């Protein structure tokens, strides 16, 4: 199918250009490890468990990324990655569905001890695991509850990587027909190997004018008409040297 052929061709070119960038990426990953205080503080450890170093599968940036990485490390040590994922998403959904809770977590004027008490009550009533409960308390103590949705999204990305799942986002002007969506998903599955499970999410953005933008595994393949037009415009604006004629 033409769509899948364009994707394979675009990715092939991208991979040739990405080698040098991978060296910089390795350095970046070494600089963004979450603070030890975030990982160790307030988390329940498994009694008698060997303290093995946990490797975060994806590079996470910013404060929310660091919190998500710390939660992931604690969840792996407690062998509860999927349970924590379910609980943290449950908490975020509850916040979205309650105006009062949403206002509460956004109000920085609320005293820390009150924030912590409310979160402890919610976690207790919801029967959250110790890892999730202690993490939410830590986030409340640090005044980061307003960022919990972003933290949860980052954690979900880590949990998916842990389970061998890959989230791919395809942006188009109009929704892809079912047969093209299926073909794209199968193409990605073949590229990533049988060990990976692809979750394809569609986004609609008329501003790209046509073509598509594909994002997966922290890579972006921009095959949109908008980008091609911008590239052509830059070429046309470049001065022409007589020596090149």
From TrEMBL:
Question: What do the Gene Ontology cellular component annotations say?
Answer: membrane
- What is the superkingdom listed in this entry's lineage? Eukaryota
Q: Where in the cell is it found?
A: Membrane
What InterPro entries would the database entry show? Answer: ATP_synth_OSCP/delta_N_sf (IPR026015), ATPase_OSCP/d_CS (IPR020781), ATPase_OSCP/dsu (IPR000711)
Q: Name the SUPFAM superfamilies on file.
A: N-terminal domain of the delta subunit of the F1F0-ATP synthase
UniProt keyword list: ATP synthesis, Hydrogen ion transport, Ion transport, Membrane, Transport
Query: Its principal location?
Result: membrane
For molecular function, the Gene Ontology terms on record are: proton-transporting ATP synthase activity, rotational mechanism
The entry's family comment says: Belongs to the ATPase delta chain family.
Q: Which NCBIfam families does the UniProt record give?
A: ATP_synt_delta (TIGR01145)
Q: How does it assemble?
A: F-type ATPases have 2 components, CF(1) - the catalytic core - and CF(0) - the membrane proton channel. CF(1) has five subunits: alpha(3), beta(3), gamma(1), delta(1), epsilon(1). CF(0) has three main subunits: a, b and c.
Instruction: Output this protein's name.
Output: ATP synthase subunit O
């Amino acid at each position: 199918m033409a769509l899948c052929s364009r994707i394979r061709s675009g990715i092939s070119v991208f991979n040739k250009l990405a080698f040098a960038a991978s060296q910089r990426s390795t350095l970046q990953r070494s600089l963004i490890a979450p603070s030890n205080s975030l990982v160790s503080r307030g988390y329940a450890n498994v009694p008698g468990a060997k303290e093995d170093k946990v490797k975060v599968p994806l590079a996470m940036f910013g404060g929310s990324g660091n919190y998500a990485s710390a939660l992931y490390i604690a969840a792996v040590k407690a062998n509860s990655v999927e349970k924590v994922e379910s609980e943290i998403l449950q908490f975020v959904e509850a916040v979205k569905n309650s105006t009062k809770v949403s206002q509460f977590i956004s109000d920085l004027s609320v005293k820390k001890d009150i924030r912590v008490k409310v979160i402890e009550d919610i976690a207790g009533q919801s029967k959250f695991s110790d890892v999730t409960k202690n993490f939410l308390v830590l986030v409340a103590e640090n005044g980061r509850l307003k960022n919990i949705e972003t933290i949860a999204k980052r954690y979900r990305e880590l949990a998916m990587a842990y389970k061998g799942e890959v989230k791919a986002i395809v942006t188009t002007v109009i929704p892809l027909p079912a047969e093209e969506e299926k073909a794209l998903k199968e193409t990605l599955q073949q590229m990533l190997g049988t060990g990976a499970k692809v979750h394809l999410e569609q986004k609609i953005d008329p501003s790209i004018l046509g073509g598509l933008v594909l994002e997966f595994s922290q890579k972006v393949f921009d095959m949109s008409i908008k980008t091609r037009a911008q590239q052509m415009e830059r070429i046309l604006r470049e001065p022409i040297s007589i020596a090149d004629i």
